[in-house]
Fold:
Amino acid sequence: MSMYLTFTIGKDKRNLVDDITDFHIDNSTSTNPQWLQARQNEDGMRQVFVTVKNEDGSPLNLTGCNYWFQGKLPDGIHKIIDARHGVTLDAQNGKFRFDMPKQAFAVAGSYVQAFFRIVRDGESLTTLEFDLTVLADLVYNDLVPSDYITPFEDLYGKLQDYITKANGDFDAAMAQWKKDVADLITELNADIGGINLTITEIKAQLASLEEKIKGDGLLTQADFDAKIKTVNETIKNALDQLKKPIPVGNSIIIGGPISSDEKNLLDKFRSTVDTSKFNLIFFNDSHYGMQSDIKNYGPRYAINHLNTALYLDDLVNVIVAGGDNIDGHLLSYDGLINDEQNFATELLFGSPNHADKFALKGNHDDGSLRLRWYREGSKYAPDSFPDTISNAQFKSDYMNGQLLFGEHRNDGDSNYFYKDYPDFKVRLIGLDSNDIPEDVKAADGGNKYVGLNNMGYRQEQLDWFANVALQNVPEDYVTIICVHSPATPTANDNTNLTDYTITHYTNQAQLNQIIKDFINGQSSVITNNVEDWEIKVQTNFVVQGKRDVAGYIHGHYHYEELTTNQGFNNISCVSAIPYTGFNNGAQNGGWTLFTLDRDNRKLKSTGYGLSTNRTFDY
Structure:
């Protein structure tokens, strides 16, 4: 289970307390009340994803930073200082993750105080305070509370290193180690007054440790060598284990584990994968919504279905989330962001990442259905004007700017990309079919165009597509294009664009012409003069020559279909969302594995769940 916190340095604060002796966190006095909740005995899976901003809203640069969790347990006695479990996710954008240890959840109740400390070069930059509540576990409650001070525990465990550096001189090693422990205690006591590690306690621990070391005979070279051999063997075994396929059940961050029935089906599915060929999973239209109240289909189980696709992580080259990753209908904007971040976290980090992972935007991903409801005066509309998820937010949540899988993106972080796979002679391109002009506003201050119904492409992306993504493609390469929306233009694409009851795919015909120019090795000037969607793109593929496009793979329709009247395979895939309000595993929803058979010029699809097996010639 993951939770998200956002802090703004310089704005978020709480009032001073009158009596420090009876201090307790009270969010009513805070300008930015943040909270976490867990249950006793939880360990490791309670992950906290933190975003830190400067007062002007820009991200706090966390380059070179470490993260400490510090707190006083609900019993008012024991303390936590954990400097071990913080992980930087995106330093430039102020994002880190903290994996809370089980020792933090030993006592039920509300923490006396809890905060993250951000440290750089030994200096404390800031503290991020929040309310931490631990729910009681009435079944298993045998975890004994204790102080948990990871800097001391780390130092405690390094005594053997001290002995090694002292060439077996035990007295010299102990003297240096005791000095470092004393320095650490001084640092901790100066840093947080609530930590009461006394010299008496340390002396007792040292005496116990000295007796154990002497009793074990660690000072003899033979015993020392034997223990080092054991350590080396353990490391080798761990490395060997890492080379083996890791089942996604051990990596799941969010969502339910794979059921035994689905695992049996997936194991059979795995046995059919030809790893000598290029393999791509297209996982589209999952419509995730953790708090969804829709009864006739199952948004809550979308991440469970994602985990079935991730089960093939070690066998395929890439997994593409094909848009409508979230359902986007919740009235709460924070709820929408939580859905998107949960989906992104599981997609990007819920597997060992042998395969590349890319996310496309769909027409539900910006949450604009709520905006449409509001403007229509629908009974489902929120009470106040609803925010929508911006392009910038989508980029941030899916960490586009990190280029996690070596892809190429326009300006380094666009919602469209390409990547070459030289071993398979494949160029993969992902496009943003919801490229609405966010800078064009309606009278109410919101986006003029509602993403739910206004799909399409604009000048910058189409120019990049024609003159970057489709250029310098080697003659023996095959190109595969993934996108959310279909390639079939409609009569409504250039008219009545503010009519929210009509679906528009503006500049879809123009995109198709670029693809046809690429396939045929020709040039043209492609234009459209629709207001706010004006384009003029010059293509030139004459020198490059003709190239192969195996397929234009898309979702959106929720059903399977193939058309070729645009001059290429326009392949529609079944949706991943369950069509009932229950999690019936492979009995509803599905996803598609595409395998490129270059020798026979075929793109083959193998279906999971409701998806079927198909073959496409190119």
Q: What stands out?
A: The first strand starts at residue 2 and ends at 8.
